[in-house]
Specification:
Bound molecules: flavin-adenine dinucleotide
Mean pLDDT: 91
Number of strands: 22
Radius of gyration: 23 Å
Low-confidence stretches: 14-25
Strand content: 15-25%
Largest sheet: 7 strands, mixed
Structural class: alpha/beta
Strand order of the largest sheet: 7-6-17-18-19-16-20
Length: 471
């Protein structure tokens, strides 16, 4: 695996910034600034560079990658953010291929039973039918078709979610429904709704619009095994950063974007407490909308302003636990676990060398439970997670070591896990794909895959193509 980008290298890449910042005739209008060096900003800058367009990429934190953050600790490699690469996520695979980065199954042991615990009842191992289901639901559950029972009829109505302008106005009636309201309107029992929203979804199900969920189910094949980049997902963000030919600067936080009457944007940038300004004819804001809310925005259309202000980001806390052995395998279990609150979702990660007996379980929890977990001290959190695992596994669980925790909603530069487009917010998804004067929005929120690396890369590439087409 390649060495991480050093601060010195990043500063070298940004050499020439001072010159670029000097006003030159016509230079401002031609200048392209990309804000945020997550996957969206990096791919956007790279695609522009590949077509010979110079770009200044500004990143507020001291590292690139954003919600992709790999941690190496005690011989183990774990992810604090994005982990799974789905088989159909072609943009992630294409960039990994471009840089020659190998993929490996997220869960190389993939065998054994997945556990589900709902309202205290462990529903998977003995094949028992969960209580409260209607006879039709019970049959569908036994056949593994509960999701299909309720969502399949909807799929035919969705149209092509990759078409710009999706969701079209003829989906407005559906757009007004949350996932829970849609399921209830189709006659789903409370028990079926609980089962269908088990795991990470349970923390934000009340806010989630049915269209966002149905699009995800339609686009993403969750049944094929997910992969992970060998050595950690930051191999991709580092490779993208290294491939840039324009400038990349870390520690440069954009504080204000002011769209002026002449259509040129004036940015205020803070570097180590010092403010300076820069003008650009094209600005790509590749930061989560929750972080964009912290930038002073002047001269934007009221619609874009509303879209930024009204999009909720899910609270999420992700923790990595290591165990002296992969104890779940001995019990015939896969280590994958989905519960209703508060543990929600647990899965094994591939980050231990194959010869190493240690096992890693990752927990991600969303919504109110994530807020509470994120607010705990480390010792309290470790004990809490252990107790929850004992309850969920229904028996003793070896004492884990809490390797790391990241509560993304507490990070002011990110503001949460991913956007939740709620009932009636189809217009926001349409609007985010259009520029507002010189300002373009990129990121998973401006793509058909909110909450996925695929979406960030797709939107970065797409914005770059459109900027090039308009030049
Ligand atoms: C816990 C968690 C688990 C996830 N799991 C998966 C998964 O398994 N698979 C998957 O595909 N995806 C997953 N995702 C989603 C995935 O990480 C994101 O969709 C993707 O990384 C978003 O990339 P981005 O470039 O749009 O935004 P980000 O990665 O958020 O990048 C935005 C960048 O902008 C910077 N920034 C913010 N404000 C400013 C400013 N004022 N000035 C300059 N820079 C600024 C930030 O520091 C950041 O670097 C997960 C996310 C989380 C949080």
């Amino acid at each position: 695996m390649s060495a991480p980008l050093s601060r010195r290298r990043l500063l070298q890449q940004s050499a020439g910034l001072a010159l670029a910042g000097c006003p030159r005739s016509g230079a401002s209008a031609r200048r392209v600034v990309v804000i945020g060096a997550g996957l969206a900003g990096l791919s956007c800058a790279l695609e522009l560079n590949r077509k010979g367009r110079g770009v200044q990429l500004l990143e507020a934190s001291e590292r690139v990658g954003g919600r992709v953050q790999t941690q190496r600790i005690g011989g183990l490699v774990v992810e604090l953010g994005a982990t799974r690469i789905l088989a159909g996520h072609d943009r992630v695979h294409a960039y990994a291929d471009l840089f020659g980065i190998e993929r490996t199954p997220v869960d190389p042991d993939r065998a054994g039973i997945d556990l589900a615990v709902v309202q205290g009842q462990r529903v998977a191992p003995d094949g028992a039918i969960p209580g409260g289901l209607t006879p039709g639901e019970a049959l569908a559950w036994q056949q593994g078709r509960l999701l299909e029972l309720y969502l399949l009829p909807l799929m035919a109505q969705l149209g092509d979610p990759l078409r710009p302008g999706w969701p079209p106005p003829d989906l407005d009636a559906l757009d007004r429904l949350s996932l829970a309201a849609y399921l209830a309107s189709r006659g789903a029992s409370e028990a079926a709704i609980a089962l269908l929203t088990l795991g990470g979804l349970s923390g934000w199900v009340d806010r989630l619009g049915i269209l966002q969920h149905a699009r995800h189910v339609g686009l993403d094949d969750l049944s094929s095994p997910a992969t992970w980049l060998v050595g950690g997902n930051d191999a991709l963000t580092e490779a993208l950063a290294r491939a840039l030919t324009g400038s990349l600067e870390v520690g440069a936080a954009v504080r204000e974007i002011r769209v002026q009457r002449n259509g040129i944007a004036r940015l205020s940038i803070e570097r180590r407490g010092l403010l300076s300004t820069l003008e650009a004819g094209v600005v790509v804001a590749a930061v989560p909308l929750a972080a964009l809310r912290r930038i002073r925005l002047v001269g934007l259309s009221s619609q874009v302003r509303r879209a930024i202000d009204e999009t909720h980001y899910v609270e999420i806390t992700q923790s990595n636990l290591s165990f002296s052995s992969r104890f779940w395998i001995e019990r015939g279990l896969s280590g994958r676990l989905r519960t209703d609150r508060p543990l929600q979702e647990v899965w094994p990660q591939a980050g231990a060398p194959r010869a190493d007996p240690r096992g890693i379980l990752t927990n991600s929890t969303t919504g109110q439970a994530a807020i509470e977990l994120g607010a705990m001290g480390e010792a309290e959190r470790g004990t809490f997670l252990h107790e929850q695992l004992v309850m969920a596994f229904g028996g003793p669980v070896p004492e884990p070591t809490l390797l790391s925790t990241r509560a993304w909603h507490l990070d002011a530069l990110i503001g949460g896990g991913w956007p939740v487009f709620g009932p009636g917010q189809g217009w926001i998804q349409r609007r985010l794909q259009q520029p507002d004067g010189p300002l373009w929005l990129a990121g998973d929120h401006a793509s058909p895959w909110p909450g996925w690396m695929q979406g960030a890369l797709y939107s970065g590439e797409r914005v770059a193509q459109r900027i090039l087409a308009e030049a």
